[in-house]
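Following up on my earlier thread - several people asked me to post the actual chain instead of describing it. Fair enough. Here it is, all 222 residues.
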Amino acid sequence: MIQQSPAQIYKAQQRGHFENEAQRWYATLNFETYTAQGREPFGTLKTINDETLGPGQHIMRYANNATLLLIPLVGTLTYSLNQEAQYAEPNEAVWLPLNGTITISNPYESELINFIYIVFSNNFISEAATVGINLSERNVLSPFSLPGTLKAKMGLFDGRGEAIFKLSNKADGVFIYIISGAFEVQGRLLEERDALALWNLEEADIQALSENAVIMLFEIPL
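Reply from S.P.:
Thanks for posting it. Predicted structure:
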């Protein structure tokens, strides 16, 4: 029997939304012009956006004493922190200490790019690092975090594939984000781009409900 713990579900249809001719973003938590009750930061997790940039377009973001995580999903993106532009590709996670302005660009002339943009409200890394995301082994939660930092995992699942995410600290919470497909997490149905926050638990039970479903999880200090 699954232990029921306190939780908050963030449905994809209720996310904040902004778009113009250059960009489109969907914000799971409060971000820029989007503010809503119940969408406050979850512990140190401040921002988690699903973002799209048009061909040749760029955005500039500012944060102080923060850690930024960029996860390209479709296409290669470029980013610059007052230095030569660097590239990030799908199946990579880019961790960046952010004390100032970052520029994120779409290098293509005719293609859109899509990426996940995540900000943590504390700076827990000293320099930028790129980590590969291994989705070659199915029904496994593969780590993509940096040594000695918060736990971050992602997995590609078959229908009915199962896994358990164990917390390293009982005082922490778990934040789950569904990149594609559908899952049941601790008895709660989550579909593409839905999110779930859990706390007061030691582990989270995960079961995929569709083929080629992709899930991302973070252990978040509360």
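The chain has a mean pLDDT of 96. That should answer part of your original question.
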